[in-house]
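Notes from the 1:1 (GR / supervisor)

We went over the backlog. Supervisor wanted to see one worked example end to end before approving the batch request, so GR pasted a single chain during the call. The sequence is below; no edits were made to it. Supervisor asked that the structure be written out right there so they could see what the output format looks like.
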Amino acid sequence: MYALVTNNEITKFINHPKSMVIGDVRYPAKIFSVWSASELNAIGIYEVVFDDSNKKDEKWYINTNQSFDFDGNEVTASYGTATPKAHADTTWSQQDSDDGDLPDDKEVGDVKVEGLKTKLIRTIKQQASGLLAPTDWYVVKASEVSDYSVPTNIATYRASVRTKSNEMETAITNASDTPALETLYTYTTTDGVQSRPLGELPTLES
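Structure output shown during the call:
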């Protein structure tokens, strides 16, 4: 991506090399591939330098739009300070009710907008349910057939899924803010083994 700078102001962005008229001269598209950076700069064309140092994972943060700046030497595209997404639910307030904004099917204190914690815990529950579903039939059979018992390895596995799920939900609940939630989900590698503080739900070994 390039920018055209005129009188120290960015006047146009060039996403793809193309023929251009600058001043009274038409330049062919090939200048973008055969000219040096200094030659392009001499006619006001600068390759945009992208600075993503402030850009954060959009799972956890709301990034600003990029801003473009020309400092007399280069054109840069950068982000402002990212805003953490709300980690806790927001609720309908008495003020909402007084202002007439409270929906008819809601009461003061009900969830207005779900925070990350609620969404993440719901996902953990869904994942745990998905892991347990293939072995549900053992439990159903044991409840319907008097002389049948759930195999020990299946019972142990199902209990471990529930235990780990509860531990993960507790860790999410106890996270103090959005960066703490992000840390729970961030993988690191030690001695060639990848892991995250939140851990993983167990799987049934064949």
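Supervisor's comment: The chain has a mean pLDDT of 95.
Batch request approved.
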